[in-house]
Design brief:
mainly alpha
Length: about 120
Amino acid sequence: MVTTLILLNVCHWAGDYTHLSTAWMLKAKQHGRPLFPILIHAGVHTLLFFLMVFVLHGFEKALMAASIQLPTHFLIDVWKGRMNVWFPEIQSPENKFHWWTFGADQFLHQLVIIVIAYFACA
């Protein structure tokens, strides 16, 4: 289970903090719209998770991971972007609520990773 958690976190990092997140996706994520670039971004995460779980646990578990990852990643990122629109002041890193929102976003992504790892290893 620990190996699965670590490797899914590597996938999460790669999907969010490397060239796999394009400027087009990041701009949409910042505002929570348009939805299509955010969906593509969630699809990148889903593909990474699918491939990793497939290698570690097989096809059925990989489908389960994908079916959880796509909607949750999409909804979390839309929510975070909409928070930036509804409360523009939280876009500034100097505002403590910026970090609360960022932390909530990452916490939700981590919960999803834990759930996927749990079911993949079951």
